Known about the structure:
Blueprint (H helix, E strand, L loop, with lengths): L4 H20 L12 H8 L3 H13 L3 E4 L3 E4 L14 H7 L4 E12 L15 E11 L2 E11 L16 H8 L4 E9 L3 H7 L7 E9 L4 E10 L15
Antiparallel strand pairs: 1-2, 3-4, 4-5, 5-8, 6-7, 7-8
Helix pairs in contact: 1-3, 2-3
Amino acid sequence: MTDSPQPAATLHQQILGDIEKRILSGEWAPGFRLPFEVELAKSYDVSRMTVNKVLTRLAAAGLVERRKKSGTFVAQPKVHSAVLEIHDIEAEVRSLNRAYGLQLLSRRLCLGGEAEDGDFEANGETRLLELSCLHTAGGAPFCHEYRLINLDIVPKAEEADFSRIAPGQWLRMEVPWSAAEHRIRAISPDRTMAARLNLARNAACLVVERRTWNEQDAVTFVRFTYPGDQHAVLARFTPQSG
């Protein structure tokens, strides 16, 4: 079964809204297993790929959990949720009254299965732009950026000069996004990363990974690696009422 181009986007939004309504209204309570993709596709009369994209968006929003071989379940509500803004690294550096610099370390075109990060939502035929950049503050390493851009969604990125403008800044001007996911962790740098950030091998690094989506597809994946002793993540939130 195939979806025609224009109705597909409309159906995607309708299905997403319908399932969100069932979850948020309590009709589908936490722990409820959603119908399988094949069943949902038949119910909504769309392709299984369209249903998969809807479930991916719901998982990114934290409304469902996808479990391999078990299915998709309504997620348990979180007590608190800290939201990180998609920030501008150049503005962050300049707010410290330090000169900002950008170095494009590498740039290559690849297919989905060839990228360094295999967790990006791209099949083997998806065209990707893979970038490695170093952001500096006052001439010293500030953070390293590894990024994948989906050229099927953002074809203009192939011609963009990312030695002159940071990829994140360019994407914010060119591509609207509708959902984002952050993951934060600490690592010890490998030899290459330690050299790029001018760190000892036993130093700690703060890693912030982010994925963004538009209405239907993954737009970009980025991994920022910061020297751990110079950076902290701050999230401000208020208690829920009731």
